[in-house]
Amino acid sequence: MIELNKVTYTYPFQKQPAVRDISFSVNPGEAVLVTGASGCGKSTLVRLVNGLCPHFFLGEFEGDIHRNGISCEAQTLKEISTLVGTVFQDPELQFFAMNVDDEIAFAHEWLGKSAEQIRNIVDKTARRLGITDILSASIHELSEGQKQKVAIGGVLSLAPSILVLDEPSANLDPESTRELARLIRELKARDIAVLVADHRLYWLEDVVDRVLVMDKGTIAAQGNFSILEEPECKEKYGLRSHRVEDVRQTLPSLPDTGHIHVENLTFAHKNAPLLYENISFSLGKGVTAIIGDNGTGKTTLARLLTGLSRMRQGKIFINGKPVPGKEVLKRSALILQNTDHQLHMNSVVQEIAMASGILNPGNVKKEGLMAILERFGLKHLAERHPQSLSGGEKQRLVIACGLAANPDIFILDEPTSGLDGRNMKRIADMIQSASDDGISVVVITHDLELLSKVCDAALRLPITARPAP
To answer: If you classify domain 260-460 with CATH, what class do you get?
Structure first.
């Protein structure tokens, strides 16, 4: 079990505590959800439970934490790690091997287990997580959802008595999310204490035993799942919806003709079977969702539509005219799932200037840049370093940069992953605004809440070949 008693923690060089006077427990066989707006202290709470605060991040610690009845004062980080398993929001941060099989085996090899033991552990873990078909795959070829499953499998293979999941549903499709909910129930039945920190709430209704809502570093509300049904709680603390309609099957299919037309697209990764063969489709103006299970090629299709990857064969037409790959690259914008990969300048306003100057060299004016920042609620952050922004602010910045280039095709890959209710609504409003401006917007998302708010039609993967119109 895990028990926190009057815990206050302050990061180095900070005057204000990140969390204050936190007391709660998670008993064996119990699952507890921690939620709240971005910056409320969830991540710090996760680090306190797994020992990274204060053992790794240092800082000032007050209070006491008991793990399986042992006080934190008597535990080293190494000892804590044998009790507490953590799956971080970005699973790449905890990978050490190049392929899935080796990743799951890695820790057990270091523990000196026999080859036969390791083989049994890897196979059992793969079956449990439904990843037997990707055991030989390179880590870098996996979808984000597949990476999440591998990270969970690697941690569970070590049999921790306490499991911490940080935004575990952020990269998972709804079916995989249901599998994760089933897995948590299974872990509870085996008397494992589970702490879940997540913004997405709907999938946990029949899973968690208690809910902690954090605000400004404190536990502002707690109770069973029903407290999330109160509208004032959702509004006051910037929470996501506790129930979400699945509109994937009811969204209209794509039109036969549209602003963007893709004809006879064929593509395969190097030394891999064909992912797409002779497929044709059209995108109208408005917001189109690309829907499919983890690993069906959604991000690959986005790279093809924006010219970042080369088709084996096929053509893209914009307004009825064929456009070569290099020109497609200039007339499109892709917002990656990891925003850090697209932020390279020393200030927010410089990011906008670079984006604006790509297509319009010599036409970058400070007044126009500030107007763009104001439109997206970023003007007050103009001189801030992009990497110092919150997750929601970074997401708004990269979207603003994409729209500053005035693209014909605007594609967003999981734009609301890991965002709270307020930031999710801001992103939804930005997407709708781009659509209203006549841009063909494509959203790759597993976020059922976002789908229901902004999407007009759906491109469902996998796609079967059909004759081009």
So the answer is: alpha beta
pLDDT at residue 469, rounded to an integer: 42
Evaluated on CA atoms 348, 350, 352, 354, the torsion sign reads negative
Of the chain, the percentage scoring pLDDT greater than 70 comes to 97
Quick check: 315 and 263 in contact, CB under 8 A? yes
- Looking at residue 73, its pLDDT comes to 85
What Å distances lie between residue 166 and 89, 169, 237, 266, CA to CA? 5, 9, 19, 38
- The β-bridge partners of 287 are 441
The class that CATH gives domain 2-237 is alpha beta
Within this chain, domains 2-237 and 260-460 share the same CATH topology: yes
Q: For all residues of the chain together, what is the average pLDDT? A: 90
Preceding peptide of 255 cis, ω within 30°: no
End-to-end Cα spacing for the chain: 61
d(CA 195, CA 216): 20
Instruction: Name the range with the highest mean pLDDT among 147-161, 294-308, 383-397.
Output: 147-161
- The residue type of 258 is G
- Rounded to the nearest 10 degrees, what angle do helices 100-110 and 115-129 cross at? 130
Over residues 310-348, the pLDDT tens digits come to 999 999 999 899 998 889 988 999 998 888 888 999 999
Give the CA angle between residues 321, 327, 330 to the nearest 5°. 125
The total of other beta-carbon atoms located within 10 Å of residue 273's CB is 7
- Cα angle value 40/42/45 (rounded, 5°): 125
Residue 313 host element (H or E): strand 313-318
Per-residue 3-state assignment (H helix, E strand, C coil) for 99-158: EHHHHHHHHHHHCCCCHHHHHHHHHHHHHHHCCHHHCCCEHHHCCHHHHHHHHHHHHHCC
Task: Please list the residues that pair with 27 across neighbouring strands.
Answer: none
Residue 12, token pair as written in the block = 């180095």
- Structure tokens given for 138: 């390179």
Domain ranges of the chain: 2-237, 260-460
| Full strand arrangement of the beta sheet holding 313-318 | 274-283, 260-268, 313-318, 321-323
Length of the chain: 469
8 A C-beta contact, residue 269 and residue 143: no
Tokens of 464: 């079967």
Q: Say if residues 233 and 221 touch (Cβ distance below 8 Å).
A: yes
DSSP state at residue 463: P
Asked if 419 and 427 count as a contact pair (C-beta separation under 8 A), the reply is yes
Query: What is the pTM (predicted TM-score) of this model?
Result: 0.83
CA 47 to the chain's CA centroid: 19
